[in-house]
Automatic annotation (TrEMBL):
This is dTDP-glucose 4,6-dehydratase. One of its GO terms (molecular function) is NAD+ binding. InterPro entries: Epimerase_deHydtase (IPR001509), NAD(P)-bd_dom_sf (IPR036291), UXS-like (IPR044516). Its cofactor is NAD(+). The keyword Zinc does not apply. Transmembrane segments: none annotated. Its main location: Golgi. It is a single-pass type II membrane protein. Residues 5-239 form the NAD-dependent epimerase/dehydratase domain. Signal peptide: none annotated. One of its GO terms (cellular component) is cytoplasm. It is found in: Golgi apparatus membrane; Golgi apparatus, Golgi stack membrane. One of its GO terms (biological process) is D-xylose metabolic process.
Length: 316
C-alpha cells in the first residue's frame, strides 16, 4: 500500500485529494495547521485505518515517522481574501513550507508534486497560456504575495531536482471549483452561489467581460494523481480550456439556482487578470488527461452541496 503525504490536506483541494487517494488504496497522512482548512472537510476520514491527521505548521521544520512514497504539496492560502489577510504567511508557505516539504520528500525518497497555480502567469499577454510562457506578474501589487510565492516555489522545486536529485513535478492549477469551497471564500463561483441562493445581488467586477476557465474538482484530482504517478518533471497545466466571461457565469448560476437575484457591477480590483485559459496540450499528450465534467453539470453538483450547507432550496 503506497503512502501519500498531503500538505494542506484539510483544505478544499487537499481534502478532495485525500478522498481520491484513499479510494485508490493509498494510506494518507494529512498535514494542516487549519489556517484556511477545516476539520469538517476531513471528518469523514478521521476514523479510517488508512488516514492520519497531523496538526503541523509546515513553515517550521517537521518530520514524519513512517515511510512516504508520494508528497503532494497543496498547502497555501489560495483566495485573495486569505492571502491579502495573511501576506507574510503566504510568502512563508511558498518559501519555508516548500523547502521543508521538499526536504521531507528527499529524506523519504518520495515523488514530490508541487501544487502551483495559473497565477504564475499574472495578467497574461499570451492567450491561451502554455507552460512555456514566463508570465506578466506585478511583484509589488496586492496579488504579488501569492503569485511570487508560487513562482519561488517552482524555482525551489526545480533546484531540488537539479542539485539534490529529488523526483519532482509541478502542476499549474487553473480555476477549480466544487463542494467544500467556503461560501465566503471570495472567489467567483462560491460568491455567486452564496448570493444567488439567498437572492442577494450578484456582484460582478468591472463589466464582467474578463474570462476564466473552470475545472470541476473531480477532474482536477485525476490530473494531479496522473501527474504524480508519471515520469514528467516540467510544469504541466491542469484546468479546463473552455473559457467563459464572469458575466456569463453569473447568468448561468442565476438560471441553475432559479434565483431572483439581480446582477450589479463594482469596480475592478487592482491587477485582476483579464483572461485565464490553459493550454492543456502537454497534459493531453503526456498524461492522457483532459476534463470530462461540463460546467453546468459541475455547477449543479456544487449547488446541491451549497443548498445543504446554506439551507436553501436548490430551485424555486
Amino acid at each position: 500500500m503506497p503512502t501519500s503525504l498531503v500538505t494542506g490536506g484539510a483544505g478544499f483541494l487537499g481534502s478532495h485529494l485525500c478522498d481520491y487517494l484513499i479510494a485508490r488504496g493509498h494510506r494518507v497522512i494529512c498535514v494542516d495547521n487549519l489556517e484556511t482548512g477545516s476539520l469538517e472537510n476531513i471528518r469523514h476520514l478521521r476514523d479510517g485505518d488508512n488516514f492520519r491527521f497531523l496538526m503541523v505548521d509546515i513553515t517550521s521544520h517537521y518530520e514524519v515517522d513512517e515511510p512516504i512514497d508520494f508528497v503532494y504539496h497543496m498547502a497555501s492560502p489560495a483566495s485573495p481574501i486569505d492571502y491579502q489577510r495573511l501576506p507574510l504567511h503566504t510568502l512563508k508557505v511558498g518559501a519555508y513550507g516548500t523547502h521543508n516539504t521538499l526536504g521531507l520528500a528527499k529524506k523519504h525518497r518520495a515523488r514530490f508534486l508541487l501544487a502551483s497555480t495559473s497565477e504564475v502567469y499574472g495578467d497574461p499577454l499570451v492567450h491561451p497560456q502554455p507552460e512555456s510562457y514566463w508570465g506578466n506578474v506585478n511583484p509589488i501589487g496586492p496579488r504579488g504575495v501569492y503569485d511570487e510565492a508560487k513562482r519561488y516555489a517552482e524555482a525551489l522545486t526545480m533546484a531540488y531536482r537539479r542539485q539534490q536529485g529529488v523526483d519532482t513535478c509541478i502542476a499549474r492549477i487553473f480555476n477549480t471549483y466544487g463542494p467544500r469551497m467556503r461560501p465566503n471564500d471570495g472567489r467567483a463561483i462560491p460568491t455567486f452561489l452564496r448570493q444567488a441562493l439567498t437572492d442577494k445581488p450578484l456582484t460582478v467586477f468591472g463589466d464582467g467581460s474578463q474570462t476564466r476557465s473552470f475545472c470541476y474538482v473531480d477532474d482536477m484530482m485525476r490530473g494531479l494523481v496522473a501527474l504524480a504517478e508519471s515520469d514528467v518533471h516540467e510544469p504541466v497545466n491542469l484546468g479546463n480550456p473552455d473559457e467563459m466571461s464572469l458575466l456569463d457565469l453569473a447568468r448561468t448560476i442565476i438560471e441553475l439556482t432559479g434565483s431572483r437575484s439581480e446582477i450589479v457591477f463594482e469596480a475592478l480590483p487592482e491587477d485582476d487578470p483579464q483572461v485565464r485559459q490553459p493550454d492543456i496540450t502537454r497534459a493531453r499528450q503526456l498524461l492522457g488527461w483532459e476534463p470530462e465534467i461540463e460546467l453546468r453539470e459541475g455547477l449543479q453538483r456544487t449547488i446541491d452541496h451549497y443548498t445543504r450547507i446554506l439551507g436553501e432550496p436548490a430551485a424555486r
